[in-house]
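Why does residue order matter? Because the sequence determines the fold. Keep that principle in mind as you read this record.
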Amino acid sequence: MSHTLPRPHFATNESGASDKNGHGGPKRLRILFADDEQHLRELMQMELPRMGHEVTVCSEGRAALDTLAKGNFDAAILDLRMPGMTGVQVLEQAKAASPQTEFIILTGHATLDTAVEALRHGAFDYLTKPCRWAELEMRLAKIAEKRQLTNQALALETRLRAVEGPTLLIGDSDAMQAVTRLVETVAPTDSSVLILGETGTGKELVARTLHEHSHRAGMPFVPVNCGALPENLVESELFGHRKGAFTGADQHRKGLFEVADGGTLFLDEVGELDKSLQVKLLRFLESGEIRRVGENEPFRVDVRIVCATNRSLADMVAKDEFRQDLMFRINTFEIEMPPLRERLDDLPDLVEHLFSRRHGPREGSSPGLSAAALHSLASYHWPGNVRELANVIEHAAILSGGKPIQPEHLPHQFRAIRRPHFATTSEPAVPTLRDIEMEHIVAVLEKHQGHKPAAAKELGVSLKTLYNKLHQLQPAS
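Structure:
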């Protein structure tokens, strides 16, 4: 069905109808639309659901940023000029915390510079006012296609894990060594495990490692983001349903507990489960039985439960938002993942691993980081943790073109971080031993164009010692 758009900032095609194709439009997306013009918000609230999408609207930038932080959105359409924050500023701050969201900048002030700035900050695309519905639909279809390809790639990655080898916990810092010891201790058991940590620290990686080092390794590992499950279908998604159990249940369906039978079910963001589902999860942990929606008889499944959260379950219990008995049940064994800012010694190893994962072992060693680029990474606060680091390395690797990464290859937020320099005054000063050492290390690294193995060989130290020395470039806070 075509729609005429009698609004000043969205134009129709020449026939007066939108360019909606006959293929049913893009896949369903969850979309945030932020614009200070009320009639545009009202228009989007009507038209995007007609395309099959779910939409949330905001009238200004700060509200958009807060909404993105609280929810999972596939796409965000942001007006360039809004009260409080511009669309690009929202994009800049939200990208690390919501890396799965694709951003479209909407502007009535179109210049090439505007487009370049939006794309440079990580926008998927931009649209200029006035624009046609067909233009918007085309962007949304591309986002849906990208999301589908990403999901297919993740599924393929899961199927190929047995071929690629075991999951690795990267890092030799004290914090990561403690995590590794805990994983090695509890993995062979069937105990429930609760993994704590900020978003992006690698909680799912720990869960996968637990699974791969258990006797269940040959059986399914099923990850579930509890916060992303449709609210009205959570019970069906987890426990399955029988045909006719509710409107739209036109066939029997296995739940994720059944899919994971014999293996491990990873409940990420377990704190997002409502109280009724918490009761059912507790019942399974006590009895080993589940019951499909629409059925009366329970049945047993053999599933190990691993949970994760970035929230304090104790605080939720105090607020009556989480069952205390369930907290004790899922917390038989607790593993806390440290944030990246507390394990900066692991940065070089993480970067090498990310390069290897991106290029594969057959393409040779990674181009490496210059000392200045490593200093910039080590001086950053990493709100998005390792997940953000992966995005940064992807960005820098593309711009560096296979050469050692320099500060100018890093995203803009790193360029304000000053490279360390050795203080000089108008009066002669005797350099410290540390100054002389660091000057020499930097000189040798620059001689070898940032290639750390060659620099370490010339310096007569191990590669790990060189990394430790480079970490000392970080100024004291």
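Residues 342-471 form a domain with the Helicase, Ruva Protein; domain 3 fold (CATH 1.10.8.60).
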